[in-house]
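User: These chains co-purify. Model them together.
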Amino acid sequence: MDSFPVTTRRHHEMVDITRQVSRIIAESKVIEGMAVVYSPHTTAGIAINEHCDPDVVHDALLWMERQVPRIQPGFRHGEGNSDSHIKAIMTGASATLIVHKGAPVLGTWQGIFFCEFDGPRTRTVHVQVLGEKAE
Amino acid sequence: MDSFPVTTRRHHEMVDITRQVSRIIAESKVIEGMAVVYSPHTTAGIAINEHCDPDVVHDALLWMERQVPRIQPGFRHGEGNSDSHIKAIMTGASATLIVHKGAPVLGTWQGIFFCEFDGPRTRTVHVQVLGEKAE
Amino acid sequence: MDSFPVTTRRHHEMVDITRQVSRIIAESKVIEGMAVVYSPHTTAGIAINEHCDPDVVHDALLWMERQVPRIQPGFRHGEGNSDSHIKAIMTGASATLIVHKGAPVLGTWQGIFFCEFDGPRTRTVHVQVLGEKAE
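Assistant: Joint model of the three components:
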């Protein structure tokens, strides 16, 4: 397993971590296999989507903030950040990638994002790579 | 593959299954690898989130019930539980964990939940662990 | 890794790909392990849910279209399909399956779906299988 830090700068933010994940996969020497990208946080998740046009991320975060308002009747959690937990459940704590020819298989427009829903903070991402290594 | 039953007691419920999953991983003898926690049901899912304060789960379920009302104009499914299926799609049928030093990698506040969206029932959870075993 | 094409016929559509995925798993000769089913697209995802009654899929797509309207105040993405990206984030780009006795472990009612959110198009699905092979 390998890990790296992510420093987020806003309350809601999707940080492109494609480069860091790809490097860990390359260094693992795994040629054919899988990789799990994992967020050990309960108010942040991992997502895969378009990373070329930042407007896509803008719109996705806007929708999520509208869909899960911070203050809602009946909410009990004392920290007041249940919306952040709910968004983390929606995106999921991890993404599973296919590793092929020593690299993650990503579509032309796809990137890997760390999704911060309760920042700014310094966070951690774990990556585990499994499969057949080069001889 | 290993499996265990989960008995749910309410219509919507998130049951903490961290202990059962951790034991299966320990018994697998896998030291470095991955684990898939899988729900073979179409009205239940698996999620990872805060398992220390039960109010987080309360708020997440409250949001989901509001977001996906049981009765909606245009719904066709004869069993009348399309909302349960939709919530299962939202959380996902599985969670993928990193196994490191013989244990699942979980953040300080993270637990693994079986998410019941059409209970109470007796359900099943499957766990598959893959990776390098201790010699 | 193995891949196959999926031709979608509608703007929003969930296409049952259980047969194709099961065949790739069978051909991999893996007896115990995992499989990742992956969509390399940013406006399509992978989901596991009921594939016996098509009304479930109908209701799920209806809910998603209502939940994420195509036109929303504040949306910036020039292509005008941010709703498709958001739905892809919600379902996720992949599903991870358990492979047991040479086949994917699926519940009685479960099937694997390619979720098109910006069709009709010709798309691609990748499948990677990892684990112990038959001798």
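Chain B has a mean pLDDT of 97.
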